[in-house]
Amino acid sequence: MGRKEDNIKRAVEVMHDRDRIRNLAIAAHIDHGKTTLSDNLIAGAGMMSEDLAGKSRVLDFDEQESARGITINAASASMVHSVSGEDYLVNLIDTPGHVDFGGDVTRAMRAVDGCIILACAVEGTMPQTETVVRQALKEKVRPVLFINKVDRLINELQIDGKEMMERFSQIIAKVNKLISTFAPEGLKKEWRVSVEDGTVAFGSAYYNWGMSVPFMAKTKLNFVDIFEHCKNDQQKELSKKAPVHEVLLDMAVDKLPSPLVAQVYRIPNIWQGDLESVQGKAMMSCDEAGPLSLMITKIWMDPHAGEVAVGRIYSGEIKQGESVWALGGAKAERVQQVSMMVGGDRISVPSVSAGNIAAITGIRSAAAGVTVTRDPEATPFEAIRHYSEPVVTKAIEPLAMKDLPKFIGAMSSLAKADASLQVSTNSETGEALLAGMGELHLEITIYRLEEEHGIKVKQSDPIVVYRECIQSKNEGQAFEGKSPNRHNRFYIETEPLPTEVIQALREGEFGDGTVRNKDSKEVGDKFAAYGMKKDLMRKIYAIHGTNVLVNDTKGIQNLHETRELIIEGFNEVCKKGPLAQEPLMGVMVRLTDAKLHEDAIHRGPAQTIPAVRNSIRGSLVRSRPVIMEPIQNIRIDAPNDVIGGVTREVTNRRGIIEDMPVDGGTASVIGKMPVGESFGFSNDIRAASQGRAVWNTENAGFDILPMSLFEKTVGDIRERKGLKPEIPGEAYYSD
In three state form, how does the secondary structure of 337-394 look? Predict the structure, then answer.
């Protein structure tokens, strides 16, 4: 039996001992060495050839720049690691390092109990490291710290032991500040990281060595030995004495919690059901004999098995051949195969039990974030909050028409796997429109389409997705919309929603879609908690994104029969506003009156939907409509001598500089910039800084587009969409 087969056998044996399971993620800023580290951990545990480590999944998106993004081929990798003669099962979950993939990171954190924060010794903690740590702590995931690229400190920057300790102290202090701010109450002190207690390790993932205080005690190595090995080009020898996988997996086993420990404080955070119920008690104690509760955290495509759903089992066990419900699905579905992800391979097993990560096939209605149980009435897990507002779109189509059926299937599975991606079709051209969180998000999605699904595509330049909003309310001036047969009239008033309500809608606080009559009172009361009128909000009909529709009429006969058609008209306007057919944002639509034909045949869909659509659009035009543009936070770090070129580049793109801290020879530019001005920014910033700037961005919501750009922007969008150049006025909608 080979080492790999032996490890698979050991993994299956350890799976039922929940005290010896560790579920962990590696959280890092892009290009801080996560790919290399993940591969070395897997290789060191005997799951992959050591020659391939660090090369297996490296993607090169910028030709000369280092890899960006996707690490382990599978969604998770399980390894067996032995400490003091006892085997432990370590499940490593893949997390992306780029903020465009914030949704992926949040989903990964839901599946794990601990994470290794990876910080670069040269660059320190970066904004994206901080973002990922915040997300981990929000999900009550315990962190430990690994300071990477220490070899560069010694060999390139030529620093001595004292300076090195100062650098480490700065990084540790920053991480502890985040922990003291965002860690759960009662755990802030316990979760602090320090070199002395073994929750901090350092080393070089690239050269495959690591070190920590407990490992120094075990091997009798010290700082002087590390300096000697690095300076004398003996890092290969060092990796044999102190392999990084052994140092970090020892730390994970010793310092990170098992599912038995972690689920006690994590379940109340992620599940809103009754903790005293059978399901609640089973999850709190991670009971494999309890009812099945599994949360899907990722969907990925296997070339042979098709869609594979990967998820964390919080109680019970999932068995091959049984029928389960993906909550929200139409029917029970049969589990075709249950597997463990060992290394990069899916190893089929009869069942996987509580506390583990399982890969399952056969559940067609599975999607990231969905709860899987045997009981269709079970309480689902709290929705994973990363309400996505895609801000960049590309039109794509297959190069070869023979690939069209395959292309349609691939697009559908990409959208299921990534909740922050939106897929639609341009009805005029038949092209697929792919909307995502940023330029890189779309680049990598298209890369997956071409490489994983084998479909070559033609793509447009990136297009910014704007939003339409209003600035005033037209209370008492309802707009009348007539049906084509003139027998039905709807009267609509619109008003902008308060910022805090828009944010709560964005985070899914009130749900989305049609509000059922039996739920409207409860939903209305939630709005009242944000200062909205309780009586009015209890008459809510529907929510679409950050917009709401309320029925503010009294005693209109037959109105209930047209309710679904009114909601359909509202949804259409939310997707395409009156200015440039961009999505609507932050608007309350109030139906104040209606005159309906008594005969149902004269108030069908072809009459009601256009009448509602026109009355809403007319009311919006009356309420001083504006275009909102997506904005991103930016941070650029560059040497002092090139920072002038960097600031010019930012201000030339309508960027606003909010702060410019200086740390030694490095200056930082912190501010905001419109997403529409950011395309091609990486090339220009490289030129402006002679390739010495490090920069990153994070989506920061929307701002009103300056009036000086309004006409041109709206004109360009209308032209691109094949609309008439002039914006229709009120008269257009009242005919």
Answer: EEEEEECCEEEECCEEECCCEEEEECCCCCCCCCEEECCCCCCCECCCCCCCCCCEEE
Residue type, 706: P
Is the predicted pLDDT of residue 660 greater than 80, yes or no? yes
Question: What pLDDT was estimated at residue 484?
Answer: 93
Written as one string, the DSSP assignment of 460-509 is PPPEE--EEEESS--TT-PEEEE-TTSS-EEEEEEEEPPHHHHHHHHTTT
Q: Is 432 helix (H, G, I), strand (E, B) or coil?
A: strand
Amino acid at 556: I
CATH 3.30.70.870 fits 392-465, yes or no: yes
Class of the CATH domain delimited by 262-373:
mainly beta
Q: What is the C-alpha to C-alpha distance for residues 556 and 309, in angstroms, rounded to an integer?
A: 48
User: For residue 69, which amino acid is it?
Assistant: G
Instruction: pLDDT band for 385, please (50, 70, 90 cuts).
Output: low
- Cα–Cα nearest to 299, from 380, 368, 388, 369: 368
What is residue 328's predicted lDDT score, i.e. its pLDDT?
A: 76
Q: 3-class SS at 433? A: strand
Query: Which has the higher per-residue pLDDT, 74 or 609?
Result: 609
Amino acid type, 258: S
How is residue 551 written in tokens?
A: 């029925």
**Stronger pLDDT, 11 or 137, i.e. the higher one:** 137
Tell me the pLDDT band of 447, cut-offs 50, 70 and 90: confident
Q: Could you give the 3-state DSSP secondary structure of residue 159?
A: coil
Strands 513-514 and 479-482: unpaired
On whether the pTM is more than 0.90, the answer is no
Q: What angle do CA 546, 549, 554 make, to 5 degrees?
A: 160
The structure tokens listed for 279 are 């399901």
How many helices (H) and strands (E) in the chain?
23, 34
Closest CA to 607 of 550, 576, 562: 562
- Reported CATH class of domain 469-623+729-734: alpha beta
Of 129, 25, 56, the residue nearest 694 (C-alpha): 129
Question: What are 1-37's pLDDT values in tens digits?
Answer: 455 667 677 878 888 899 999 999 887 655 555 556 6
pLDDT recorded at residue 692: 78
What length does the chain have? 735
What mean pLDDT do residues 341-359 have? 83
Alpha-carbon distance values, 656 to 634, 635, 650, 663, 669 (Å)? 10, 11, 7, 21, 10
d(CA 337, CA 136): 30
Alpha helices by DSSP H, 220-370: 223-231, 235-241, 244-255, 259-270, 278-284
Which residue has better confidence, 489 or 38? 489
Inter-CA distances, 449 with 211, 403, 478, Å: 40, 12, 48
Domain 627-704 has CATH 3.30.70.240: yes
Q: Which residue has the tokens 């359909």?
A: 568
The pLDDT of 193-215, averaged and rounded, is: 88
- Using the predicted structure, report yes or no on whether residue 578 has a pLDDT greater than 90: yes
- For residues 361 and 307, the answer to whether their CB atoms sit within 8 Å is yes
Q: Would the CATH topology of 3-257 be identical to that of 262-373?
A: no
Six token digits for residue 172? 């540790």
Q: Which residues, other chains included, contact 137 with Cβ-Cβ below 8 Å and sequence gap of 6+?
A: 143, 178, 179, 182, 183, 184
Residue 114 · residue 199 · CB < 8 Å:
no
- Comparison of pLDDT for 556 and 437, the residue scoring more: 556
Reading phi first (left if > 0) and then psi (alpha if -120 to 50, else beta), residue 650 is in alpha
| More confident site: 115 or 230 | 115
Could you state, in order of their start, the residue ranges of all structural domains in the chain? 3-257, 262-373, 392-465, 469-623+729-734, 627-704
Q: Which CATH superfamily is domain 3-257 in?
A: P-loop containing nucleotide triphosphate hydrolases (3.40.50.300)
User: CA–CA separation, 279 vs 14, rounded Å?
Assistant: 24
The token duo for 404 is 């069209």
